[in-house]
Amino acid sequence: QVQLVESGGGLVQAGESLRLSCAVSGRSFNAFNLAWYRQAPGKERELVARMSPGRDINYADSVKGRFTISTNRVRNSVYLQMNSLKPEDTAVYYCYADHSSGARFWGQGTQVTVSS
After folding, report:
1. How far apart are CA 60 and CA 46, in angstroms?
2. 5 CB contacts (<8 Å, ≥6 apart)?
3. Contacts of 71 (CB under 8 A, 6+ apart)
């Protein structure tokens, strides 16, 4: 079993930055795909950024050039650095991990609110 605990959300103004953290416990995440998703009110959950075990990275078009996913494999943590935030980035952000075995895990989510 894997537990994911996010932190770092909050209220910021447009143009500011936030860094989300996700602590992964229960198993080493070296064999997992790691990702950040977000869900805005009234919208479906969407992929923001994803990193494979081989460190291949994909970003949603809407965040390319502004957001960066990274990991600290010693601390078993995954991060999302969010720069130049926009009001449309307002959402609950979720940490996610999945494995080729089919196992999937979600964090509880952290709220990010960007005011204009």
Report:
1. 9
2. 22, 23, 25, 95, 107, 108
3. 29, 34, 51, 77, 78, 79
- Residue 84, both tokens: 């130049």
Which of the four pLDDT bands, split at 50, 70 and 90, describes residue 15?
A: very high
Strands (E), 1-116: 3-7, 10-13, 18-25, 33-39, 46-51, 57-59, 67-72, 77-82, 91-98, 104-106, 110-115
Q: What is the pLDDT of residues 43-79, one digit of tens each?
A: 999 999 999 999 999 999 999 999 999 999 888 999 9
- Written as six digits, the tokens of 86 are 């926009």
